[in-house]
Amino acid sequence: MRARTIAAGLAVAALTLPLAACGGGGDSSSGDAKTIKIVYRNYSDFPQMDTFMKEVKKQFEAANPGITAQLTPVSSLDSDYLAKVQLMQRSPSTAPDVLFEDSFNVNADAAAGYLLPIDDYLAKWPDWNSQFIPTTKQAGKAVDGKTYAVPMGTDSRGLWFNKDIFAKAGLPTDWQPKTWNDVLDAARKIKQTQPDVEPMYLPLGKPAAEAMSMQTLEMLLYGTPTKNLYDEQAGKWVAPSKGFQDALGYVQTVMKENLAQTAAQAEDTQWAQTQMPLLMSQGKIGFMMDGGWYARYWQDGGVAPWPNWSKTLGTTKFPTQNGQAPGNVTLSGGWTLAVGASTGNPEASMKFIETALNKENSASIDVACSWLPVREDVKADPRLAATDPTEPFWSSLVSFTRYRPTLAEYPQVSNAMDVAGDSVVNGGDPAQAAQQWAKDVAKAVGSDKVKTG
Questions:
Q1: How distant, in Å, are the alpha carbons of 164, 194, 268, 271 from that of 283?
Q2: Which domains, ranges and CATH numbers included, belong to the chain?
């Protein structure tokens, strides 16, 4: 996850902090392999991770003579990265020792036997016990109670809006929508007053993958009376549900009234990663429903540098469907570092993670990627707010945040959500798409593990 996976230009962070790097494949037949393979996502929209990993490599190798960290960057979008890494994990000869892992996939990879439980190693790491925020540790814990990954940062979701565009549309520049209709009405006013401006952006289309299921459909679903994708007390997935159909209905309204990107743009694998941030910086999009990490796109070194972004853009919470309690919705996710189950040197792999996520390096990557800190001693780092003035707003949302179901079946459920959402983006009926989604969920998890909502 995207969010998933998926802030400040790392070029800046690299100048302010010493870091170190990662690396290549260990021999699974031994416990003292001299090379460990570090796999992570490196793409044009996310150059910060490559810079970070190269710095961490230097630190790690300096502190561990004789062991090489072989960096193995994967150049791809989030959804493609997941598929490529899972393919690597199927063979010990290609499996990573350390991997950059979206928190939503930890349970599935743990259940598949791709990840190594690391509780014994964490127990010996003082920082884990004294500095990592307890709630954030859940990102790396599976339903079996074991921990398989260490969080790098977390996030929250809401609305970014262009105050200049809002002013021209006669909308408040301290915008605080109370219902879904308030959001849609703002888009309609922008369309009426500024026909050359795309009213809104929200993650849509099959290429958006987890971004559409989490940042769009789940943000909407959790703001309906249905509230849940998974009923923890009943131990069942809520499918079908009126809430999910309503979420698809919102998408249908957006598409039918041409209030967001076109279906063609939604199906373009590059548009959301490159063109959309650029259009935002050019004043061509009124507002967007997405995560706080977008600040990194507009900072120096980002894909669309925009010196005045923090003055031009406002931030606000996303409302529940009809303004019902609790009034607003946000979701949190984040990326982690995990140890592959086939590693030939788990001790070195964990030392690499400990180096990458010590205080200084954690601060560096959180600043660079506009992630919210997962360490207590990083929360007060002045560089966070100095580099991203919106960071306090996004941090404030964590007080009422929700998380995706931490179950091995979740990626399958999420993929089914993407299929349903993509159907509606391309003209499908929300009711039919919701019913098909429920059938797909029952097929994936078992009909005894679903309930109607």
A1: 8, 11, 21, 16
A2: 10-155+332-399 (3.40.190.10), 157-329 (3.40.190.10)
